[in-house]
Structure formats: C-alpha cells, structure tokens
Fold:
Amino acid sequence: MKTPFLFGKVTDFPNFTDRVKESERLSKNLLNGVNSIIVSPRRWGKTSLVTHVLSDIVEKRKDVRVCHIDVFNCRTEEQFYQIYANAILSAVETKLDKFVEAARRYLGRLVPSISLSDSAQQYELTFGVNFKDDKLSVGDVLNLPQRISEDLNIDFIVAIDEFQSIDFYDDSLAFQRKLRSYWQHHKRVTYCLYGSKRHMLLDIFSNPNMPFFKFGDIMFLDKISREDWQEFIVRRFADTGKVIDIELSGIIADKVKNHPYYVQQLSQQVWLRTARKCTLAIVDEAFESMVRQLSLLFTNLIDSLTSRQISFLVAVAKGEERFSSQEVLSKYKLGTSANIKNLRTSLLDKDLIDIRVESKIEIQDPVFEWWLLNEYL
Ligand SMILES: Nc1ncnc2c1ncn2[C@@H]1O[C@H](COP(=O)(O)OP(=O)(O)OP(=O)(O)O)[C@@H](O)[C@H]1O
Ligand SMILES: [Mg+2]
Structure:
C-alpha cells in the first residue's frame, strides 16, 4: 500500500493540508497582478504552497501561463539568465520546433543553441557568448515573459523558488537593480519570489535603500496548526483503513512542534508501525527511531560548530531570552555580551536558528532541539 504521508517532496492534494487562507491570498494576489514574496524557514511548505496555488490556476484559467523556476543551483548571474530563459520558453512551448522558433524569435540576438537534455523530453537552450554586460541581451531575457504575454494575449505568472540564492552572485545589488528596472514595466507578468533565510530576504524586500523595496506583498508563512494536523492525520489513516485517535494525532504534531516536514515524516513512521489501530507506545517508538536515524547527522552538525555556538544553541533550547545578561553569559560560558551578536548572525547564516520577533530566538529544527536537550547534554 502506498503511504499516505509524504515528505521531502513537494506535496499537493491529497497530501496537502490547510493553508486555505494562504492559498486564497496568494491566488488572489497572483491573479490580480500583485507581486508576492513568501518567506519561511526551511521545510515549512513554501514550494508546496506555490505549487498548489499555481496548479489550481493552471486548471481554472486558460488565459494565464505559469512558470516555476528553482534557482537554488544557480551560482552566477549568467546561470540565472540561462535557467530563466529555458524555464519561460518551456512554459509556453513544449514541442521542439515551436521551442526553437520561439528561441529564435525572442532571443535570436543571443545566438542560442538548443540541445535535448538528459531527461530526453526537455530542450535546453545555451547562449554562446558572455552576455551579462550586454544590456540588450539581458533585456531580451528579462522581458521574455512580458513579450510572450503580449503576443499570445495571456497573463504570465513567474514564480522563482530559493530566491535568496541571488545574494551570492558577484554583484547582487547590481543584479537586483537590473531585475527591478525591467520587471517594473511588465504589465502582464506577476512575480512570486520566495525562499528561506528570512533576514536576507527581508533586507532585500523591506529595506528602503534596496531596489526591491515595496516590490510586493510579503507573506510570512506560518507552520500548520495543531488542529489542522490532527484533522489531516486522522483522515489519512482512515483513507488507508487504519485508525488513530485525535489525541494521538495531536501528540505527533506536538513532538515535532507542528513542523510540516517532520509531522509528515513522523506520521509516516507511525503509520508504517500501525497494523490497524495506533497506540501511544507506537508513537513514542516511532519518534525515538526517527531521532536515532537523525542522530548521526546531528552529531556531525555539532562537530562543525564552535563550543560557544553549541552553548548558545543549548541556551536557546532551554528557553533563555536575556542573552546579554551576566547570568546567562556566565551560566553558558558565552564570553562577553559583544559575542552574542556574532553568535546570532553565524547561527542564522547556518539556518540553525530563526528570529521572528526580536527577543524570541527559536531553534529551527525541532528534532535537533529535542536531541540537543535529551541526548547530547
Ligand atoms: N500544506 C501542507 N500539507 C501537508 N504537508 C506539507 C504542507 N506543506 C509542506 N508539507 C510537508 O513539508 C515538506 C516540506 O515542504 P516544502 O518542500 O514545500 O517546504 P519549503 O518551505 O519549500 O522547504 P525549503 O525551504 O527546504 O525549500 C513537504 O515535503 C511535506 O511533507
Ligand atoms: Mg522549497
């Protein structure tokens, strides 16, 4: 039997739960020309949400084209343009001859060459020359969705996943200026930009000195609520002829603090161990087994940290808040209060902590937090 829980993959119905309000808001935005930015820590469900909303739009609206681009692996501006052009063209033309024709029509100046990629179903466009500093060529790529929209009399939605990656480009600020200068003239294209690294994205989108200031509606994705998980877990068990009661489903959500990826992972472990009716012993056993599986990873992670970084994480896990106080500094051997800022920044960069409200620091990975408190110490 196929497991009713999915993790590590982008999830959609019937593996998709809740997110009703978020889906509505995003859908409304994108269909009304409001650019949208989505920010959340890793694995909270950004990609799943956008995929869900976009596939709904594709189904209902024949006059809208959507394009989903993941720029996680783009390390340079040139790679970005290449992946971008490919994704946009593939979103409108799936047949080889049409794809080639469109590449010539819109990007002829860049002398593109086209080859069949590994997956054999996709065509791949490469540009021969170094065009990054050629304004005309860059414009051709960035204006591509707008020109196609005008020609086909459609609207275009361009979704760019892992947008925080652009911060690593050689001159990210100049690149952002370029994007903004073209995109702001696009009447028929709506952009949805999303990623993790809250502090970096916030700097890009809510700093008045940055090109993307006030570019669109910023949505902070929350975790999925305990009640929604309960309903979801009970339903998915029932769908597959097994039974779990509402309290136990709540305990699954609690154990991983409602973290979407982990709730699905733990639910799957519990489901696999349940012959027919779930018990508390099964939930506990599944959780322990999950921690055991992850502990090697966590040990390696700890090995990569300095002793002060580890102490800081322990202090966060123990619920400390006043990090600059003498008491906390000496209890956890954190050095002087001047260190705290560096510790915070380095752990934010490593995606280990999240700071949503200034005074409230959280460990991003709830299982790591549990391991830290119960196994490591
Ligand atoms: N709405 C949802 N309903 C059920 N499960 C979900 C939902 N959203 C996310 N999940 C679970 O969380 C996992 C991670 O989701 P997803 O990949 O969409 O997160 P992400 O925020 O894009 O992560 P990353 O920052 O690593 O790209 C999914 O594989 C799924 O198991
Ligand atoms: Mg994602």
